[in-house]
Design brief:
By secondary structure, the protein is of the alpha/beta class. It contains 13 helices and 18 strands. The longest helix has 17 residues.
Length: 425
């Protein structure tokens, strides 16, 4: 089917432009941009001046298959992603059991392809069981389709084991995704150190724990030459080290979660566990520093870090509650907070949400260009709504934005030129 999307406000993160025009989707790709009339037989969709951008490529989504399908399945995550304008999910291996063998990777790949309306690519564990002792079979996992290797927030404590993993990954050209955090300092922490943590009587971790973990990883990157991506940079103290690593020519990129760009440590309020995430929410100064780092391009990627938790895991005292928040459907409206605040324009946002993650993983998505995959999101950046967590398509409802006024509604999502979501359906 040929689609003719007319009168769209086209967001091009590669060129950094916003233009009004028409887009033709045919054969699963963007066939033309700017053509004045619809091809014969094409289905015409009037975008009514709303924004048309490359679909979001979301690195770091947790789907709880295998082991915890009651929290999130590939089907429910896929539906949530489509409703949120996420056209490619890159899933984490911190499942039960961890994705650490080619057989498990092939299983989740098959399951995802059967039930998800959006594209799903998978990361694999860096060490067996994410236990930091024995490296996975990196070559076989690459052959099975792994796009990156990570132990997620289980930091490999042995520098010798980490160096072996990095060296082997380098020899095969594999991307390693690290979680910059000193595990000794951050163990048992629920919030960021400071006056607020003290007043609430909650165990905290100093932001320097992130800097220390990042410094160790950068030494290993310098030693091994591995391709490295830091999943979440959340502290201003880490930014000079990141800038130095890039200046030194290391193959390093960095990400930040949408929650660390739009929330701060005070949002925890009276022990609201939906605001408990990993790393913990930081100070307002840190948040503003992260926003500036994304706007300048120092931080390359924004991700949802979608982490479903059931009610039983969250309805506990703050210190005991599970960390994480769902974010597939709230990713875009939360990002619109940055746009409406004047912190960055839409091409800059989609550079970090679509173009850069696709480029880092070697995927063809994330571009608004002729010949690029027709993975697109049509959205109204100004549409207001009150978020009700029970309307979310994720099985788990642990969003920190419940009851909040938000702006930005996804109107339609296209994957491979096929419409997989339409608002109101």
């Amino acid at each position: 089917m040929t689609l003719y999307l007319q009168n769209a406000r086209i967001i091009d993160p590669e060129a950094g432009t916003e233009t009004v025009g028409n887009v033709i989707l045919d054969g699963g790709v963007i066939a033309a941009i700017g053509q004045a009339s619809a091809p014969a037989g094409a289905e015409v969709i009037d975008c009514d001046g709303k924004c048309l951008a490359p679909g979001i490529v979301d690195i770091g989504v947790k789907v709880c298959e295998p082991g915890e399908r009651h929290k999130e399945s590939f089907r429910s995550a896929g539906l949530a992603a489509a409703a949120g304008g996420v056209t490619t999910m890159v899933t984490r291996p911190d499942t039960t059991p961890a994705i650490d063998t080619p057989e498990l990777l092939e299983f989740v790949t098959r399951r995802a392809a059967e039930v998800s309306p959006v594209r799903i690519r998978h990361m694999a564990a860096l060490t067996k069981g994410r236990e930091g002792r024995e490296m996975v079979e990196v070559g076989f996992m690459l052959d099975a389709g792994a796009v990156a290797f990570t132990d997620c927030d289980n930091v490999v404590t042995s520098t010798k084991v980490a160096s072996r993993c990095f060296t082997y990954a380098r020899s095969l050209g594999a991307l390693v995704i690290g979680h910059p955090q000193d595990p000794g300092l951050s163990a048992g922490a629920a919030v960021t150190n400071g006056k607020f943590a003290s007043l609430r009587g909650l165990p905290g971790v100093h932001p320097m724990a992130e800097r220390m973990g990042f410094d160790r990883d950068m030494a290993l990157v310098e030693m091994t030459g591995v391709r490295y991506h830091a999943d979440q940079i959340t502290s201003a103290r880490t930014l000079p080290a990141l800038e130095q690593a890039k200046r030194n020519g290391l193959d390093v990129t960095a990400g930040v979660s949408i929650h660390h760009l739009t929330l701060n440590e005070l949002d925890v309020g009276d022990y609201r566990t939906f605001f408990k995430v990993t790393p913990p929410l930081r100070s307002e100064d840190d948040r503003l520093a992260m926003v500036e780092a994304v706007a300048s391009g120092l931080i390359d990627i924004i991700s949802s870090m979608h982490t479903p938790q059931d009610e039983e895991s969250k309805r506990l005292p703050f210190e005991e509650a599970a960390s994480g928040a769902v974010a597939l459907e709230t990713f875009l409206p939360a990002a619109m907070r940055l746009y409406h605040a004047g912190a960055m324009d839409l091409p800059t946002l989609f550079r970090a949400m679509s173009l850069n993650p696709a480029k880092r993983l070697g995927l063809p998505q994330g571009r608004m260009a002729e010949g690029a995959p027709a993975d697109l999101v049509l959205f109204d950046p100004d549409a207001p709504f009150l978020l009700d967590r029970f309307t979310l398509r994720s099985k788990s409802k642990n969003t920190p934005f419940d009851g909040q006024r938000m702006e930005g509604r996804v109107l339609a999502t296209f994957v491979g030129g096929q419409q997989v979501f339409r608002a109101g359906e």
